[in-house]
């Protein structure tokens, strides 16, 4: 029997070590003596013959650095978690077909071994579709170009590729003895992700694909159960599970399956232009307690640590680089209070009830319309009770077992002995901590810049075609950027040249951002939104007599991660494009010759790396004095600040672009302002992200995580590409610290 996962009290390091040893012995050796197994029954997941209440949290290995993993996992364990849940991200592991990468931040096995060493279990959500606000929902972009492919349906090329990757991961796990059936930490695996409603819309093909995916997974014979989330018709032996803000209305599709909640949303993600969403911990704890009192036995915080969408990994469009998620461990790996501590107390109270919860069904009695008692009374052993008040406005006084209890609004009291209240979801006894971004002692020095040259086209990297082409088909998502350039001849007799109304340029784009340049000058920019990718630019432009160069820089801001057949969604300038106001009337530019260039010159020249080739014409910023220029590369150096606080770049003075530290991308930045309704937030009542919004009127994201492990003591190189214009000399390195 393995019992070392229960985290009733924080352990001393020495005894911790002892437990880890015992755990390893029990699993690794034990599995040769008794057979290790994970099964399930109507009550719970059953590990080596023992029913378990399992508390889980999502930490995505790709969203932090390997140097952070152990600390994150230990904090999760200390917060009372038994299980770490992660998706597997196909696109980082197979960046081009048949070429695999499991190094660095993508070292899945190293991450899982850290979880194992902590004496915790793993839920491995292989997908390989993951959603997750991750670029293209985790699918590699090359997959879109496999002939005759259609994603997530009964389509042979797709199924072949999906089976190939799923097998690859399962085989890797087996070879590393990662499944619990082999003595490893993985107790559950997920195939697909929230396919239910998508599949229904695809009719018979959807159903066939779903059953194919289920059978394919089961045949891989991992020795641990598979789950499908939000899949009411998941076939046996797969367990269908719930995702949501609350899951107490959920029951699995067979009476012999346990009630599992694979995504307990602890907050919500952020999109550029939107506010920050917080979920009050009182309501989160209330949601969890409601689920447990109903008979649920596994729940997983999505996210327990959200982390950072480094590089161009954010899904989209417009998901921010920060994936903080208002999680109990913040983006930087610091504990968020009171969220973390209040949940830790909740977990302790739930674990005190574990024997009762796992033995019997609850007896439910009502005290009134909005108050109930759920009582678990086993034949032997203590009884446990959950007293609930669903009234969002009023506290309730109830009498239970001849004792009086006051229940705050929208709360549950947990009584592990049916007598004393160990925990109430609305009574937060943990002190809040405030985090602050403090200036560091490290200044940026030796600023230099160079502007993307709009006039000279290197013919080897461009091509010309008639008409407007789809962006991702050209870039294959190797860059966010695609240039569309054409020229327009203007006769010298045009009336606008003699004081008439200047012409207007209309450009419609399918996403996601557009910068318009006329004869090398920035005319303006337009942006879509996450929900409305299509947008129109219509502005007056400065034309002259003779030939005019119109250059449109289309910017992709993360590929979609969800939606029916999103692989068919188009990106870029697809028309109409037209000039209005010339003497001849409308001039259609959709079918003229356009010259295309994928990516920026700076990208082609690899300016982000310290070994930039010498013919790059960097100029010292102070000599130029044109800091607001669009399409400009900037670079500077800095020394590592002392201390061990997490670091961030304050990008408040900048517009929009991407930043790299010592050659590694810390992500896309954009100082766009948050639109929202920040009217205050109350924990009681049914929660939705709009309930608690923060940061309205401020840049959605101002600070960008700089992992300490990416730095050397001195002369760290910061490079950034600024699309709109900003003052890089005001960029500063800050330390994230707790306010005392
Ligand atoms: C879920 C999905 C997750 C994530 C979440 C929102 O529906 O399964 O992958 O996208 O929504 O953060």
TrEMBL record:
Q: Please report the stretch or stretches of sequence annotated as the Beta-galactosidase galactose-binding domain.
A: 481-548, 631-716
- Leader sequence range is 1-31
Q: What class of enzyme is it?
A: hydrolase
Q: According to the UniProt entry, what is the EC number of this protein?
A: 3.2.1.23
User: Which terms in the Gene Ontology molecular function aspect does this entry carry?
Assistant: beta-galactosidase activity
- Domain Glycoside hydrolase 35 catalytic, chain residue ranges per copy: 44-349
InterPro entries in UniProt: BetaGal_gal-bd (IPR048913), Galactose-bd-like_sf (IPR008979), GH (IPR017853), GHD (IPR041392), Gly_Hdrlase_35_cat (IPR031330), Glyco_hydro_35_CS (IPR019801), Glycoside_Hdrlase_35 (IPR001944)
Q: Which GO terms describe its biological process?
A: galactose catabolic process; plant-type cell wall modification
A single Gene Ontology CC annotation of this entry is:
plant-type cell wall
Instruction: Give yes or no: UniProt keyword Membrane.
Output: no
Reactions catalysed, as given in the entry: Hydrolysis of terminal non-reducing beta-D-galactose residues in beta-D-galactosides
- Where in this chain does the record put each Beta-galactosidase beta-sandwich domain? 372-428
Q: What UniProt keywords are attached to this protein's entry?
A: Glycosidase, Hydrolase, Signal
The family this protein is said to belong to: Belongs to the glycosyl hydrolase 35 family.
What is the name of the protein in this document? Beta-galactosidase
Give me the gene this protein comes from: BGAL5
């Amino acid at each position: 029997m393995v019992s070392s996962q229960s985290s009733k009290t924080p352990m001393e390091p020495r005894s911790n070590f002892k437990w880890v040893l015992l755990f390893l012995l029990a699993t690794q050796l034990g599995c040769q003596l008794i057979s290790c197994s994970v099964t399930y029954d109507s009550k719970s997941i059953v590990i080596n013959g023992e029913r378990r209440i399992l508390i889980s949290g999502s930490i995505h290995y790709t969203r932090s650095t390997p140097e952070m993993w152990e600390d994150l996992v230990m904090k999760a364990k200390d917060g009372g978690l038994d299980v770490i849940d992660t998706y597997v991200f196909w696109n980082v592991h197979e960046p081009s077909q048949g070429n695999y990468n499991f190094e660095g931040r993508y070292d899945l096995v190293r991450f899982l071994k850290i979880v194992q060493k902590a004496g915790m279990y793993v839920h491995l959500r292989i997908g390989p579709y993951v959603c997750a606000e991750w670029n293209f929902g985790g699918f590699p972009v090359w997959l879109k170009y496999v002939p005759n492919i259609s994603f997530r349906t009964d389509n042979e090329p797709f199924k072949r590729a999906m089976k190939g990757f799923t097998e690859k991961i399962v085989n890797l796990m087996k070879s590393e003895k990662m499944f619990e059936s082999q003595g490893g930490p993985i107790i559950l695996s997920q195939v697909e992700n929230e396919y239910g409603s998508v599949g229904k819309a695809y009719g018979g093909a959807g159903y066939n694909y779903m059953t194919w995916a289920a059978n394919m997974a089961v045949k891989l014979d991992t020795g641990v159960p598979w789950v499908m989330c939000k899949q009411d018709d998941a076939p046996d032996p797969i367990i269908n599970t719930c995702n949501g803000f609350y899951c107490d209305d959920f029951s699995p599709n067979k009476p012999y399956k346990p009630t599992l909640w694979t995504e307990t949303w602890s907050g919500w993600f952020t999109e550029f232009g939107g506010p920050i969403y917080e979920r009050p911990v009182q309501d989160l704890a209330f949601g969890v307690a409601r689920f447990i009192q109903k008979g649920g036995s596994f729940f997983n915080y999505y996210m327990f640590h959200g982390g950072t969408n480094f590089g161009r990994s954010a899904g989209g469009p417009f998901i921010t680089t920060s994936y903080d998620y208002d999680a109990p461990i913040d983006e930087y790996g610091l504990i968020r209070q009171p969220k973390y501590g209040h949940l830790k107390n909740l977990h302790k109270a739930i674990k005190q009830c574990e024997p009762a919860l796992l033995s019997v069904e609850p007896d439910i009695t009502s005290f009134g319309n909005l108050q109930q008692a759920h009582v678990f009374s086993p034949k032997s052993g203590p009884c446990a009770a959950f007293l609930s008040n669903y009234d969002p406005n009023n506290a309730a006084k109830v009498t239970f077992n001849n004792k009086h209890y006051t229940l705050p609004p929208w709360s549950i009291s947990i009584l592990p002995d049916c007598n004393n209240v160990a925990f109430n979801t609305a009574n937060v006894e943990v002190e809040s901590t405030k985090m602050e971004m403090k200036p560091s002692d490290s200044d940026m020095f030796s600023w230099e810049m160079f502007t993307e040259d709009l006039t000279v086209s290197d013919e080897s990297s461009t091509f010309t075609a008639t008409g407007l082409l789809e962006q991702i088909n050209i870039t294959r998502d190797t860059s966010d950027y695609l240039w569309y350039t054409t020229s327009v001849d203007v006769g010298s007799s045009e009336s606008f040249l003699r004081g008439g109304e200047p012409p207007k340029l209309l450009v419609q784009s399918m996403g996601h951002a557009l910068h318009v340049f006329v004869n090398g000058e920035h005319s303006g920019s337009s942006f879509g939104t996450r929900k409305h990718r299509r947008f129109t630019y219509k502005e007056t432009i400065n034309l002259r007599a003779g030939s005019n160069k119109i250059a449109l820089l289309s910017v992709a801001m993360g590929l979609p991660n969800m939606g029916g057949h999103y692989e068919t969604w188009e990106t870029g300038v697809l028309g109409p494009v037209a000039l209005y106001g010339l003497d001849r009337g409308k001039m259609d530019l959709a079918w003229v010759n356009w010259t295309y260039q994928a990516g920026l010159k700076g990208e082609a020249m690899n300016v982000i790396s310290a070994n930039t080739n010498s013919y790059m014409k960097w100029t010292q910023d102070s000599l130029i004095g044109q800091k607001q220029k669009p399409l400009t590369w900037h670079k500077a150096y800095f020394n590592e600040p002392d201390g061990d606080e997490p670091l961030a770049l304050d990008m408040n003075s900048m517009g929009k672009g991407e930043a790299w530290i010592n050659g590694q991308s810390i992500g896309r930045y954009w100082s766009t302002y948050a639109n929202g309704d920040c009217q205050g937030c109350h924990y009681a009542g049914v929660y939705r992200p709009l309930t608690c919004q923060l940061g309205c009127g401020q840049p959605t994201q101002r600070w960008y995580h700089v992992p300490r492990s990416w730095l050397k003591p001195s002369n760290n190189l910061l490079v950034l590409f600024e699309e709109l214009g900003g003052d890089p000399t005001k960029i500063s390195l800050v330390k994230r610290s707790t306010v005392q």
